[in-house]
């Protein structure tokens, strides 16, 4: 009841106020919305880069594109200022990463999207939305503000979610017949190749789940009448997205990678993709945030247990919780026969992973990605995943 009152007596009036004061700047822009549990940031970046390569001036509002913001979708005051800034920069289009929280709290109130896309839906934010039905309902609000809808046909919640869309929609996927379907899929240690309508697509980002990000971008571009060639050229060298599949160079014969994966589904997709290209052992460093959905913690543990050789459970943003308690809940999902370590200090976890790794292995650090701080209690401490790897490399060299 309190949350509902806050929605309508605080969030909605605030959105109306800032739209009115700034004179609805978004009305001068072509908005493209991207929502979903995982893949939003990468899909947004891919769409933006492709539209720019086609000659358009395009802004982007996403997790990594707006430094200093602690939310993916900003509050209305900041959002309207960003739209105004893009207009001053002569942008005609803006790609927006739209979260379920922002939709539930009217942050995009008044905004009209030319086209919106759903990347996928899986277990996440149930501490806020309470159940999957309410989570999907919040996500579906984006499509009530959109001219066109594009949905992932392979998403396990497709049938339930599509019933909430009150307009015709396009679909994309690989497994089930869809409007835009990838076929002849091939993954090597260097490339991901596939065809759509007999047109070949080749990218150096050889992760299976990248298919869906590319297909979502393709569907958006086709709706906007952007020729396929611009996307084909964009993905040849996949656009760099900080903290997403970001490799950290080292002098050893194993791979060290940073990724933002922090949901059960994201972990599953990341680990299964890496498994297919890893000759040796797959080592996963990960944790779970405090003060958030506790029900996903054992599920995350189960995913890492089944899809990596070594799991190292460590601290993420613990907030008001004890890392020992968080890790215990994660570990409850591990198979008894699994190899795992409970290392509360995150730097210590990196040190151990690098110490254990041998030639041909892959270490993937999940959860923090591009973030530059780690939150313990109410204090933000400086943090960098790449620096953590570099520190671990130095320690390994000293002990050789």
Short structural description:
The chain has 14 helices and 18 strands. It is of the alpha/beta class and 400 residues long.
Predict the CATH topology of the largest domain: UDP-N-acetylmuramoyl-L-alanine:D-glutamate ligase
Number of strands: 18
CATH H-level homologous superfamily name of the largest domain: Mur-like, catalytic domain
Instruction: State the domain count.
Output: 2
**What would CATH call the architecture of the largest domain?**
3-Layer(aba) Sandwich
Major beta sheet summary = 7 strands, parallel
Protein topology:
Blueprint lengths: L1 H20 L8 E6 L4 H14 L4 E4 L14 H13 L4 E5 L2 H5 L8 E6 L7 H4 L2 H13 L4 E4 L5 H5 L6 E5 L6 E2 L1 E5 L4 E5 L2 E5 L6 H14 L4 H9 L9 E2 L7 E5 L4 H12 L6 E5 L10 H11 L2 E4 L9 H9 L8 E3 L3 H11 L5 E5 L6 E4 L2 E4 L2 H15 L1
Parallel strand pairs: 1-3, 1-4, 2-3, 4-5, 5-6, 6-7, 12-16, 13-14, 13-16, 14-15
Antiparallel strand pairs: 8-9, 9-10, 11-12, 17-18
Helix pairs in contact: 2-8, 2-9, 10-11, 11-12, 13-14
Question: Which features characterize this protein?
Answer:
400 residues; alpha/beta; UDP-N-acetylmuramoyl-L-alanine:D-glutamate ligase; Protein-Tyrosine Phosphatase, Chain A; 2 domains; seven-stranded parallel β-sheet; six-stranded mixed β-sheet; 14 helices; 18 strands
What this model shows, in words?
With 400 residues, this protein is α/β, with parallel strands linked by helices. The protein folds into two domains: 2-236, Mur-like, catalytic domain (UDP-N-acetylmuramoyl-L-alanine:D-glutamate ligase, 3-Layer(aba) Sandwich), CATH 3.40.1190.10; 246-399, Mur ligase, C-terminal domain (Protein-Tyrosine Phosphatase, Chain A). Helices cover 39% and strands 20% of the residues. It is built from 14 helices and 18 strands. The chain has helices at 2-21, 40-53, 76-88, 100-104, 126-129, 132-144, 158-162, 210-223, 228-236, 264-275, 297-307, 323-331, 346-356, 385-399; strands at residues 30-35, 58-61, 93-97, 113-118, 149-152, 169-173, 180-181, 183-187, 192-196, 199-203, 246-247, 255-259, 282-286, 310-313, 340-342, 362-366, 373-376, 379-382. Strands 2-3-1-4-5-6-7 form a seven-stranded parallel beta sheet, sandwiched between helices. Strand 11 (246-247) and strand 12 (255-259) form a beta hairpin. Helix 2 crosses helix 8 and helix 2 (40-53) crosses helix 9 (228-236). The mean pLDDT is 92.
């Amino acid at each position: 009841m309190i949350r509902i009152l806050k929605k309508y007596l605080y969030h909605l009036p605030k959105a109306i106020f800032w739209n009115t004061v700034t004179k609805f700047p978004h009305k001068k822009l072509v908005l493209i919305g991207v929502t979903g549990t995982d893949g939003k940031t990468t899909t947004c970046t891919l769409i933006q880069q492709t539209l720019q390569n086609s000659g358009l001036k395009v802004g982007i509002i996403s997790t990594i594109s707006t430094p200093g913001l602690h939310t993916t979708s900003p509050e209305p005051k900041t959002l309207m200022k960003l739209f105004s800034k893009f207009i001053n920069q002569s942008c005609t289009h803006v790609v927006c990463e739209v979260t379920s929280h922002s939709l539930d709290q009217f942050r995009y109130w008044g905004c009209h999207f030319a086209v919106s896309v759903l990347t996928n839906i899986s277990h996440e934010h149930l501490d806020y939305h309470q159940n999957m039905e309410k989570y999907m309902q919040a996500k579906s609000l984006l499509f009530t503000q959109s001219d066109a809808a594009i949905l992932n046909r392979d998403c396990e919640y497709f049938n339930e979610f599509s019933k909430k869309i009150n307009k015709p929609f396009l679909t994309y996927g690989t497994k089930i017949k869809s409007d835009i379907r990838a076929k002849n899929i091939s993954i090597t240690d260097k490339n991901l190749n596939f065809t759509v309508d007999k047109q070949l697509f080749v990218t150096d980002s050889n992760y299976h789940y990248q298919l869906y990000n590319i297909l979502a971008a393709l569907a958006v571009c086709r709706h906007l009448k952007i020729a396929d060639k611009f996307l084909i050229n964009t993905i040849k060298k996949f656009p760099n997205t900080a903290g997403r599949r970001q490799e950290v160079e080292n002098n050893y014969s194993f791979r060290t990678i940073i990724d933002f994966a922090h949901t059960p589904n994201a972990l599953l997709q990341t680990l299964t993709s890496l498994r297919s290209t890893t000759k040796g052992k797959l080592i996963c460093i990960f944790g779970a945030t405090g003060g958030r959905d506790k029900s996903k913690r054992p599920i995350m543990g189960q995913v890492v247990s089944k899809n990596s050789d070594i799991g190292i459970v460590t601290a993420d943003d613990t907030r008001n919780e004890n890392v020992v308690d968080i890790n215990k809940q994660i570990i409850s999902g591990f198979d008894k026969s699994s190899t795992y370590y409970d290392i509360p200090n995150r730097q210590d976890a990196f040190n151990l992973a690098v110490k254990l790794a041998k030639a041909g292995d892959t270490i993937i650090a999940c959860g923090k990605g591009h973030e530059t701080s780690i939150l313990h209690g109410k204090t933000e401490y400086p943090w960098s995943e790449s620096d953590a790897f570099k520190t671990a490399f130095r320690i390994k060299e000293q002990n050789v």
